[in-house]
Amino acid sequence: MATQRILDFLATRRPEGPCLVVDLDVVRDNYHAFEKALPNSKIYYAVKANPAPEILRLLASLGSCFDTASVAEIEMALDAGATPDRISYGNTIKKERDIARAYEHGIRLFAVDSVEEVEKVARAAPGARVFCRVLTDGEGAEWPLSRKFGCVPAMAVDVLRQARMLGLDAYGVSFHVGSQQTDLVAWDRALADAKAVFSALAQEGITLRMVNMGGGFPTRYLKDVPTAQAYGEAIFDALSKHFGNRIPETIIEPGRGMVGNAGVIKSEVVLISKKADNDNVRWVYLDIGKFGGLAETMDEAIRYPIVTPRDGDAVEPCVLAGPTCDSADVLYEKAPYPLPVSLTIGDEVLIEGTGAYTTTYSAVAFNGFEPLRSYVI
């Protein structure tokens, strides 16, 4: 949220146009909270959440590993000081030449979710470690990540068996319970599936050694969320329940939970209007919208806290929209957003909890608007 450092930066620098400001002190605190909550798990920061070099350098210096989705992200992590053994190529959809390039960089840990992907890895990265992503239902998540990635547990057994046959190291399984996951039981359900894959392959003499428990750790928006410590306790209990005293190596991949609450977007009210004289809902247009970095408002999945200079005045429901010439650039209409009646054109507002998935979702130049500026302090 808006720390004093962020407020001071905005007051003294007065950056023009919409911009994101990230406070590194909050990122550092979040890293230590994950470290304390899950002391036996390796932390692989999801680079896609916010790949700002300053954030990557800080996390590399703290000992973090990195979950990457492309060769470009691998190179970003290497440039930030991470060694290849601290980087996972976590995308299950990779061109064979990108696998080969990653292998040349020294990457030896790859995600898969199909026999076809295993065959590519075996050709381009011989002897590498692979983990198979298992489908989860994503129930309880505000931004589910099911269907596109992963396979059912029974198929994961086939995938890892084939990996072993092709000379790869069948290392483990992964899952992702869905982004902004607030249901502590979600990891229990997923770990039950992971254990089933471990057990089936053990009967064939294949010993898996690692469970990648993915991300999903939330940041606070309008509703309170459990603490990192609460997640740690729930996950440890689930691991003990399913694996007993033979708990495997574990990985977590926080992205939103690492940087979400460290960033604030400064925006300006461009227009306030109504669609009819008797309309009881005002339209508030900002200088940032879905194409400027707020893509996660799609389907109103993520509702960001918005701070205005007129908070405390009487409020009324508003539809929030961005500035582009695209009718899809509407943020909150199904559930209008309560904003002060006194809010006026030219007012600056702060959109909090925007440290993750904003700069990377920002369009390059849609309608001629420049990409979202970012300042890391």
Automatic annotation (TrEMBL):
Question: Its Gene Ontology biological processes?
Answer: putrescine biosynthetic process from arginine, via ornithine
Q: Which GO terms describe its molecular function?
A: ornithine decarboxylase activity
Domain annotation Orn/DAP/Arg decarboxylase 2 N-terminal: ranges? 26-259
Active-site residue numbers: C325 (proton donor)
| Location of N6-(pyridoxal phosphate)lysine modifications | K48
Q: Does the keyword Lyase apply?
A: yes
Family, similarity comment: Belongs to the Orn/Lys/Arg decarboxylase class-II family.
Task: Identify the keywords attached in UniProt to this record, alphabetized.
Answer: Lyase, Pyridoxal phosphate
Q: Which reaction does it catalyse?
A: L-ornithine + H(+) = putrescine + CO2
For this protein, the record's Pfam families field holds:
Orn_Arg_deC_N (PF02784)
What Gene3D superfamilies does this protein's entry cite?
Alanine racemase, Lyase, Ornithine Decarboxylase, Chain A, domain 1
**PROSITE patterns (UniProt xref):** ODR_DC_2_1, ODR_DC_2_2
Q: Name the coenzymes or cofactors required.
A: pyridoxal 5'-phosphate
Q: Which GO terms describe its cellular component?
A: cytoplasm
Q: Which Enzyme Commission number(s) are on file for it?
A: 4.1.1.17
Keyword RNA-binding: yes or no? no
Q: Which CDD domains match?
A: PLPDE_III_ODC (cd00622)
The biological pathway it contributes to is: Amine and polyamine biosynthesis; putrescine biosynthesis via L-ornithine pathway; putrescine from L-ornithine: step 1/1
Q: Which SUPFAM superfamilies match?
A: Alanine racemase C-terminal domain-like, PLP-binding barrel
This protein's name: ornithine decarboxylase
Source organism: Pseudaminobacter salicylatoxidans
